Amino acid sequence: MLEFIRCALEAEGVAHARPPQWEVGDDWYVTARPAMDGLRIAEKSIELLCAPGLHSPTTAYARALNQAVWQERDEGSLAERLEPFKAKFLAVARRSLT
Length: 98
What we know:
The protein is mainly α. It has one domain (2-97). It is built from four helices and no strands. The chain has helices at 2-17, 27-49, 55-70, 78-97.
C-alpha cells in the first residue's frame, strides 16, 4: 500500500508539472511515462495483496491520476478534481489497517 501511495504522489507531481503541449520523448514525457507505469504496477499490487474493499477506491484514484496526467485539463484546479478520489482511497486504506 505504501508503494501505491508513493507512486500516486509522484503521479500527482507529474500531473501538476504537465506542460500545455508535450510530445512523446520530451523531458516531461520521459518523467511521466515511468511514473505512470509505476502507478499501474502499484495499483495491481493492491489488487493482489490487499483486502477486496480497497480495490475499487484504488482503481478510481489511479484512473483519476491517469486522466490528470494524459488528458487535456478542464476548468478547475487539479487538486480539487483529485481530492475526492484521494480522500476515499486514504479513508478505506486507513480502515484496512485497523
